[in-house]
Task: structure prediction
Amino acid sequence: MAVLTTHVLNGVEGIHAEGVAVTLRHIASGRVLFRDRTDAAGRLQREVPAADLAAGAEYDLVFAVGPYWAGRGRGDVGTVRECVYRFLLLDPEVRMHVPINLSPHSHALWWSA
Result:
């Protein structure tokens, strides 16, 4: 079983980004493995059964930040709508942490085990 965690931070206001929609999608098939939202602490933890994953396949982890910014009165033209982390999965038993620091016009995202 893979475990995916994330921590989404609002870098403009210095707060946790609650309610950001996060989707994990298998790129080749378009199959969605999960859709969820960050909690009040800007965190999300999901377990994905190894049987649902394919070693050597590519996946997108999509953060739908446009609605988050719109809800905070910052949904203007040029505001980032989605932040996508595209990765190659080598081990269906991986433990992965993908934190992201947001602003309306940029983001910093990184991966750690």
